[in-house]
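Is iron/sulfur cluster placement plausible here? Inputs below.
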Amino acid sequence: MDIPKVNERWTSQINEVTIGATADQGGTRSKVITVGGQTTLPGMTFEGDIPNSPVIAGYVSDVVPEWPDFLKKAIGNEINSPTEWAQKCVQEFGCDLISLRLNGADPSGDDKSAADCAKVVENVLKAVDVPLIIWGCGDDDKDAIVLQDCSAVVKGENCLIGSAKESNYKTIVAICKADNHKIISEAPVDINIGKQVNILLQDAGYDLKDVVMFQTTAALGYGLDYVYTILERARMTGLKGDKLMAGPQLADVGGEVWRIKDAVASEEILPGWGDPERRGPSWEAACAADYLQAGADILVMSHPSAIKTIQETITQIA
Amino acid sequence: MALTGMQIYKSLPKTNCKKCGFPTCMAFAMQVAAKQKALADCPEISDDAQSALSDASAPPMKLVKIGASGKEFVFGQETVMFRHEEKFHNPTGVAGKISASLSDEEAAAKIEQINKAVFQRVGEELKVSLCAVGVDCSDPAARAKMAAEKSNVPLILMGSVDSLKAAVEAVKDQKPLIYQADASSIDALAELAAATKAPLAVTAGSLEELADLTKKAKDKGVEEMVLSFNTEKPGDTLRTLTIARRAALKKSCRELGFPAIVDINGATPEVEGALANTFAAKYAGILLVNSVEPCQLLPLLTTIQNIYTDPQKPNTVETKLYEVGQPDENSPVFFTTNFSLTYFSVEGEVERSKIPAYICVVDTEGLGVLNAYAGDKISAEKVVKTLQEQGVADKVKHRKLIIPGYLPIFRAEIEETSEWKEVIIGPELASKIPAFLAENWK
Ligand code: SF4
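Reply from A.M.:
I modeled the complex. Tokens:
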């Protein structure tokens, strides 16, 4: 029998955002990465186009994160050097781009100087040929100084800079306009604030076509339901024509999963839960698989085995 | 599909006899439409009218029950495509596969493994819901009986028509899911399902054919069916599942108005895990999986737990005093809200700090710190009262209380009105707790 026609008529396209610049484009990358551009929900190619697959950005930090030993071991000794870590992400783990966090700048942590951070960025840029995502440490005042210097040393490389919030958007816009970078707009799991930040960016003269949206990320089991639904709703709003919500979306899976006990705690703490060396990467991969269904276009990931699993998954569910 | 008052009114006797307790048939019809009354509350309604109406008012996706008496798994009757439109109702079940090629001992051992796969997570029990037993072995009936006896969860029986006939017959009072009928076996298996009143899984190469087959089975008297898919081409299956669900929910396509089962296979256990999570998010009612190891199961069961949470209802934790690690009389004391996301972030970060602590949870009706404050759901007075109720002062020697960084304004009042004379303003974000404790709690 015939099945009723059920195609949705989405009216709009998600913005296509390109990160990185080749020599022709004034940068030094061997290739650029483009995300977004779709006219339907994840996978639903029978009613729209999905010109670009989701991509994986390898998590790299200037200081070694407080991660479980088995994860540090899986990444290898290279974790002690941001440049070597970034190289390994690209050459061995096959990451499409690098997500560099300048955690060391945190005033309540190592409080590294802007000049030190800029040096790290410069070195990582030289060490790999893929595009870069560059984040500060999350402290608005410090990031204003740090990101300014970091942005300057990669001027023209068309990096993605994170992140612009209600509290600091003016600085970020000024930096990114001066050095020609793309912006991550951040909101705390709130669709209205997400929209508000984008309005502020627009009012500050920044083109929303150059913005990737970030609703922060919750690890699986720790509020994933909220973030999942926000990503899904934002995507549907964008596809229905709301230009303020038409950006591609980023999920920082690797940055969140390794903070929760379910992914890292040993069997002594969680009896019957199995070896965390296998549970952890499964947790990261599961979390990433979920966000792919919600509409994430860029996944930041950490564990090489989880990265491999999700690369294969992205191919299979296309 | 919900019926309107008018549609219901048309089928009533229209005599206004008031036996239903309402002055008019129309008034009664409105109550039925609003789901305040059942049709059966009108003693005068004809059987024909009642069955016509209940058909029309049947949910667009059937509720299917596998198993019997104590060992049951109920799923289906989903109403929306996206969580935010309402909620997902009946959590996806994970079914552990037990291959027919296993010896009796091996099969029994895997059943035992499934029985043991029960976990506690944030106050809820997570477990494998079904045992999927292959019965293409030397004695299908004996295998089915053994599984029915040993398993704590209901059964799916998988095999050829002949094996299934013997196996289902042997445990028919257990109402196993018969897996699975295709175009070649639909007649025989539909008869088996109708005779034993067991639910039937149905598969086909396309949704058009699938609809033909479920119709055929229905005509033979099978009421409860499950649409069956696999992961040979996972992308196609995602699309097909979406189309089937849209057709059922939005276009009332009865032939596809059943929940789905997806047989998950992948090149590696890791890929299999990622695919299982994918289909938990998008539209599988049952996931057939090979691995029932905790490393694979726990993230999957947690995805199901998250996706099937009611998005309209704030997630709360019990308002009580929580202990992280093994705190003693010198340990720090925090308070936070009963919004579970806030609580679990604070708990997780305190745990990460490796400093045992007490967390006093204040009832904010499921709102986070800022929203609770804005909405008047938290006050210094309430915090003091909660601390008293939970007897926190008896647990520690000191009188230092760490309060959320967003509520510095509470400090003076708490210090003035309670024994907590040293209120310390904590960080605004939970993620800063470890650094905060390292700095301030020595
Ligand atoms: S009992 Fe039935 S027939 Fe009588 S008034 Fe109520 S609805 Fe009408």
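Short version: Residues B 12-13, 15-20, 22, 25, 28, 42-44 surround iron/sulfur cluster (CB under 6 Å).
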